[in-house]
Design brief:
The complex is a heterodimer. Chain A is mostly helical. Chain A has one domain: ABC transporter involved in vitamin B12 uptake, BtuC (Orthogonal Bundle), CATH 1.10.3470. Chain A is 73% helix and 2% strand. Chain A contains eleven helices and two strands; from the N terminus they run ααααββααααααα. Chain A has a two-stranded antiparallel sheet. In chain A, strand 1 (147-149) and strand 2 form a beta hairpin. In chain A, helix 2 packs parallel to helix 4. The radius of gyration of chain A is 20 Å and the shape is globular. Chain B has one domain (39-337). Chain B is mostly helical. Classes of the chains: A mainly alpha, B mainly alpha. At the A-B interface, helix 4, helix 9 and helix 11 of A face helix 6, helix 12 and helix 14 of B.
């Protein structure tokens, strides 16, 4: 007996909290993926990343409404269409932002922080003007509702499972792109040594733009997935941005594996602590632990060893 | 010292005198007490901006958590005022008289231990400076000694701002929660809510701000200031020259935090409450933008920037609340893209050469000697 719970009960509690943590992990990871490749490659802090995610969420919301009105028969598959639309919308706006804003600021990374914060304010207010200040939600297709009972005390929601599967697939695709495509090869070259990459003929500016667009596009997909498990408001993106930054920094900015590992650590510790402490204290404790660990390993868990 | 540097020094003095004239004479004469109190509130943010000029503009440490220090200073002051307002006589309807009302609502039956020393004003006044400085020291020592800097430091300070807000809101029995510490009345029996008290507090705030600016000026014009600039521009070279870069960074970060905290304490006194909405991520970033708009390399510019941005914010949000965020966002982007040196930069690059041209034309008219333009002040 520990704290008045039997061992069996405790293990179920841990299993349930671990599952809740896995959903949080999925959101963190989907958001952090885009951020990590942008930050890792360009050193640009995209404070508007959360807003790109919310853009994806609103696109999903619009698509679901479109399907409900015009194609109610095909509602079961609307999500896949919505995801593509969210990716394209966020990615396209990301490309435009890179061209208009970010590329002028590569030499002053701290200023990108201010500029993208400004961008996030503008996007938030735009969302509020267009979609209203109230939170909106989408109706899940029938097959995504309900829960699977693993044992009589442990239940897992299907939408949660779906989001997790989606996260794994997206992470896999990003890993494939990074390690098997020409773009990925060039990205890795630029991360390692920008000047030399330029010298051997890689168009680093083009790679930067593609990376930024892709990162924002992934944020759009994250937003799409986000609608499966929560409602969307104009400022919802800001709630996650600090956690996501910590995930990226904690994992080691240039490492995909590090991002996955740190997203898992942070989300699991937060949701496990949440059961024993109040939600706010769990968050405080998690953030403090991460800050403490970062002092021990300033470059993050999986630092890329590069001679500069 | 070169002619340009002397010129620059004189210019700063003139700017300082103009600021003093503006906030000590012009504004009190021109505005009613309600508006003046509002200006006083803006001036408390200017403390933070002055601190940011020190640590961001001159040393290159961008802290996105200055609201934490502003808040710590403000909360230390508020705790004393709240205890004075919660005397046993004032709170006899509570189930536990003599403790602040929000504690009573949260079923606390005695004063938490860390509140007890705040019964004394000298302790509270010392705490206003010392508590934030100690927090800054711990954070700085942990970060700068490990050579964590730049973007990483910015993100970590931002996380600290998040922690602080969550903590204050989550522990409402000890901190007053989301409403903050409200209903503050007297300072040692002197009612701070009257118009007369507001005038006095406004002038105290002005004098402290001018004092902080002079202190900052003193630090920056000393040899220490030269090292700080060197750290900003080429940290490794300073380190290889034998300086302990970490110690300098810790010092300036603590100083900036203590100045911000004084602002927080003056905020509490003038506005009459303190709440987590002045502590978190958003206010912290807004404070950075005040300094950026005014000019991150100019103390005078930072104060002017704070006043202008806040004045614009009030004016905009009174008449077009929808547009304010667009305007603010646009301002961020414009400053980052086009005017990295802010209003002060525009002044020294654009306005000053023009004035000098007029001046030299005048001189030539008098004695026929062409005076070459001095090099633009940097």
């Amino acid at each position: 007996m520990v704290m008045g719970y039997s061992l069996g009960e405790l293990s179920s509690i841990f299993a349930m909290q671990a599952f809740a943590g896995l959903i949080l992990f999925s959101v963190f990871l989907l958001m952090a993926l885009g951020l990590a490749i942008i930050f890792g490659q360009m050193g640009v802090i995209n404070m508007a990343h959360g807003e790109f995610m919310i853009l994806g969420a609103y696109m999903t919301y619009l698509t679901s409404h479109g399907f409900q009105t015009y194609l109610p028969g095909a509602y079961a598959i609307y999500f896949f269409v919505a995801m593509a639309i969210a990716f394209i919308a966020s990615g396209a706006i990301g490309l435009a932002v890179e061209w208009l804003l970010i590329r002028h600021l590569y030499v002053r990374p701290l200023d990108t922080l201010l500029a993208t914060w400004g961008l996030s304010l503008i996007m938030q207010q735009a969302f509020r003007s267009i979609f209203g200040a109230r939170e909106v939600g989408v109706q899940l297709p029938d097959w995504m509702m309900g829960a699977l009972s693993v044992t009589d005390v442990i239940e897992v929601q299907i939408n949660g499972l779906f989001v997790m599967a989606l996260t794994l697939i997206i992470t896999g695709i990003v890993a494939l792109l990074l390690f098997r495509s020409t773009w990925g090869l060039q990205v890795r070259a630029v991360v390692t040594n920008r000047t030399m990459s330029g010298a051997v003929g890689i168009d680093t500016r083009r790679i930067d733009r593609l990376t930024f667009g892709l990162g924002c596009g992934i944020a759009g997909i994250a937003g799409s997935a986000f609608t499966m498990i929560g409602s969307t408001g104009p400022t919802a993106g800001q709630l996650y941005i600090v956690d996501t930054f910590l995930v990226v920094v904690f994992g080691g900015a240039q490492s995909l594996l590090g991002t996955v590992a740190s997203a898992l650590t942070i989300s699991q510790s937060q949701s496990t602590l949440e059961f024993f402490l109040s939600g706010s204290m769990a968050k405080v404790l998690t953030l403090l632990i991460v800050i403490g660990l970062l002092m021990l390993r300033p470059q993050g868990l999986f630092a890329l060893k590069v001679r500069r | 010292m070169s002619a340009a540097a002397t010129n620059n020094r004189n210019l700063e003095l003139i700017g300082f005198a103009l600021i003093a004239l503006l906030i000590m004479v012009v504004l009190p004469l021109a505005l009613d007490i309600f508006r003046l109190n509002l200006i006083g509130k803006y001036l408390t943010y200017a403390f933070v901006a002055v601190g940011l000029v020190l640590c961001w503009g001159y040393t290159g440490i961008l802290s996105l958590g200055q609201g934490v220090f502003f808040g710590l200073g403000g909360y230390c002051m508020a705790m004393f005022l709240k205890l004075e307002a919660s005397s046993a006589a004032n709170t006899k309807i509570q189930s536990t008289p003599g403790i602040p009302d929000f504690m009573d609502w949260n079923q606390l039956t005695e004063l938490p231990f860390f509140w007890v020393p705040f019964n004394s004003l000298p302790f509270a006044l010392i705490a206003v400076i010392v508590v934030p400085a100690v927090v800054a020291f711990i954070l700085g020592a942990a970060m700068f000694k490990r050579r964590v800097g730049g973007v990483y430091f910015a993100i970590i300070t931002q996380a600290l701002a998040a922690v602080m807000t969550i903590l204050i809101i989550g522990r409402q029995g000890y901190t007053g929660g989301i409403n903050g510490i409200t209903d503050l009345r007297t300072l040692l029996g002197w009612d701070i809510r009257t118009d007369g008290a507001k005038y006095i507090l406004y002038f105290v705030c002005c004098i402290l701000l001018l004092g902080s600016m002079l202190l900052a000026r003193f630090v920056l014009s000393s040899k220490l200031g030269r090292i700080l600039v060197a750290i900003r521009d080429k940290e490794d070279r300073v380190r290889f020259s034998g300086y302990s870069v970490g110690d300098f960074k810790i010092f300036i970060f603590c100083l900036a935090s203590a100045i911000a905290a004084v602002g927080g304490a003056m905020f509490t006194l003038q506005v009459g409450f303190m709440s987590p909405s002045f502590v978190g991520i958003v206010p912290s970033i807004e404070m950075v933008i005040f300094a950026a708009v005014g000019g991150r390399h100019s103390l005078v510019g930072a104060v002017i920037g704070t006043l202008l941005v806040n004045w614009a914010k009030t004016a905009f949000s009174e008449s077009f609340p929808e547009l304010w965020l667009f305007a603010m966002g646009g301002l961020f982007i414009a400053v980052a893209l086009a005017f990295p040196r802010g209003l002060a930069g525009i002044f020294t690059d654009q306005v000053l050469p023009y004035i000098e041209k007029l001046w030299s034309r005048n001189r030539r008219g008098q004695d026929g000697v062409v005076v070459p333009n001095p090099a633009p002040a940097e």
